[in-house]
User: Fold this.
Amino acid sequence: MIQGIGLHEILVVSSLMFFLGIYGFFTRKNLITILMSIELILNSVNINFVAFNKYLYPNMMQGHFFSLFVIAIAAAEAAVAIAIIIDLFRNIKTIDVEKVSTMKN
Amino acid sequence: MDFQYTILIPGLMFLSFVYNILWGRTQAPKIAGLIGTTSILIAAILSYYTAYQYFFNVGLVNGTFQAIIPFKMEWLRFNDLLFIDMGVLLDPISIMMLVVVTTISSMVHIYSFGYMHGDDGFPRFYAFLSLFSFSMLGLVIATNIFQMYVFWELVGVSSFLLIGYYYQKPSAVSAAKKAFIVTRFADFGFLVGILLISYITGTFDFGLLNDPNGAAMTQGAGAGFLGLSVMTWALILMFIGGAGKSAMFPLHIWLPDAMEGPTPVSALIHAATMVVAGVYLVARMFPLFHIAAPDAQQVVLAVGGFTSLFAAVIAITQIDIKRVLAFSTLSQLGYMMAALGASGYGAEEGIGYTASMWHLFTHAMFKALLFLGAGSIIHAVHSNNMTDMGGLRKYMPITHLTFLIGTLAIAGIPPFAGFFSKDEILVALHQSSHLWYWVEVVTAGLTAFYMFRLYFNVFWGENRHYHHAPHESGLAMTFPLMFLAFMAIVSGGFFMFDFGQFISANLVPYDIHIHWDVAGFSIAVAVVGISVATVLYMKPSAIPAKLANAFGPLYKATYNKFYFDEIYLFVTHKIVFGLIARPSAWFDRHVVDGLMNALAWITNLASNSIKGVQSGQLQHYAMSFVTGSVALVLFLLYFMTR
Amino acid sequence: MEQYIFYILASIILVFSYLTVTSRMILRAAVYLLFVLIATSGIYFMLNYNFLAAVQLTVYAGGIAVLIVFSVLLTSQLNEKMEKVTPVKMLSGGLIAFAGAILTISTITQYEFVANGLAELDPSPKAIGYAMLSYEHNGYVLPFEVISVLLLAAMVGAIVIAKRPAKLLNEDATEVDMSFPTSKDAYKSRTKEEIDSLLK
Assistant:
């Protein structure tokens, strides 16, 4: 519990962070920046988990552990995503998401 | 007596066909011909042996000839009562037909060695001849209507193949198509008739159907349509099939065109054997026709009688030698049909049946002779037209003599075969129907006239300028001519008092004797016809042309075969195509297809308009996804919280 | 006092999040993301989840952010600005994000969360460790093992994907030959001399 701060404040912050990530996902062209947006989204979700755990169910650890696992998954996802991006760059010399459509058709 | 070997008679021909069609091209053409000829000769010997055994060794049982079924296997079973067999049926008429078919076919096989010599399709020709012989023999020995129908269609196919033998010639191709379509059209009637009969009587078997005391005779007598009983309709429909094959009026149009085939084929198929299948069908079903459906028998009489006169009139004006013979065939087939139509069942009444079969026999001999003679002439002159011939008697003595015998036989001059059989037909008609008697007497006179017109035009008259001097054909061609001429002489006189001993409607032997009142008159009529022809055509004269002018339109109509081809063309092209086929085609193309095309077009349009959604752009998908989620949440909030 | 620290952290998070998604210099965007991640770990510290905050710092700020910076260095021209976002895209994306944010925040603020009011659990590393490897109630051994397998798979996958194809290791090759051998050259029959020369 943070003194003088309610659950609502934290949730508002995480929501704004989430939709900023969404905005970045929509507008960015570079695949790496899109990946960054995804990290933002994951982070906001983590904050939510932790906050709910702390404020509503302080006697349990579920939210805490969920955040831990999300961090681990985020790490794995980032590693694979970056591997794909690098391979893509090697093959088609660009990481512009609008040009990465050769899987189409 | 064990007749099991009779299965070999058609079986050999089938083997010959299979061999020739598969391996005929791989070896010398002569071998294909030898195989076909050997097979048919063996089949002929077997047939003669069978006839001898059947008539003289088995002979009469209780005063009648018994039908023997030496071989039978079940082919298709519908239910306990209705099934189709394949088998061999031996009775007087089937044995007579075996003899006729194998005899003529052997002669034609031998003759073709000379006639078709050097032709590219020699093995193919012999393969088809074998196929035809196989199907015709199978038809003849059929034990039930359905087996007959199967071979009936096979005969139609081989006829089609042989008419279209010169398939590079458009006229031959269209003649083959015409023959096939017309007979197929008639066979539809045959099939419906078969189905009706099997529905009424529950059997296909000839033995059960033709038993005069059997159940079939009374079944189907009631429940009529248009005042005729069901059985009558069934038999009329079957007769339509027979009329199609035998080229009876008004389904006669295919036979003259069928002369596009090689001449031996015309002799075998379109004069002696296949075209009598219709007559044979009626004879086969004769007890049923006569006892169960006399009205149908009257139809047979009327159609046969009219066809014989009609065809004889047309034959007078034709100049194509083979077409004259074709119309003459029509006319003689009409005789046979009319005799069957006029016949009673047994004894003196049943003379028409005997006469019809006898005429079938003799006609096969002398008409095959005439056709083979015509083939010999055509071979020498390289033309079908009488106007290109004349004075040939000096160049081709054997052909001339045999042709003269054939002509005398068909004209009905004793002691040649045609006289006896035709006389019996006239006797039969005299007994039952005076109208048709007089028609046939007139026809007999016309027959004598047009046949001698043909004879004089070809062998007498003025000498034409030939490219090279015509010469007599080789032995392969003259031997069949001589053999058939011999048969044309003896088949009448030799059997004179015997034919009725073998073949009669009720299978009881009957003594035929000449009725000199009828016979004398018909001889007189024939002599008149011959005399007129002699005056007009023996020496070149202007009288025929003047006569043609005098008759004007009538002559023209006759020359054009009374415009029947044109009528059929009008009916098919203008009425059937114009009123039914083309509107249906239009409907199919525009409405049915249009519907399908419209469906495809609409689908295409719809997918074109929404295919942008599948852009492959990741961010578009994400945007749609988030928008949808937001909209869904809004929707749920709005409805769930109220 | 804590209140103000939270506000400061919250504003850091929001401002740098915004800068992360809008900055046109890619390396700067990565650094801004790092700030956001560090500020987030600050919030975890404030919530007394020290272990989680440490993990956030090491894995996220230390691992992922560095990974991203490396990939940026590998793939991008650092002194080039990214092209501007088109107004249509900015407008549509902004509108949707804005609508979603308004919707979420209005829903959150209207909702009365009820705490269960029980005594707080001590989130010490020891307790976490026990819970992580416990297979009893409130034990997390199964997800723990699943995650470890996932991490292994991700590691292998990343290596396989990013590995240079063997052919590119050759001196002159600049491009991977991805085409299948055509039947002509692949299955062409070799003469005896060719086979002999191959065998030598």
Q: What stands out?
A: Residues 176-188 of chain C have pLDDT under 50 and may be disordered.
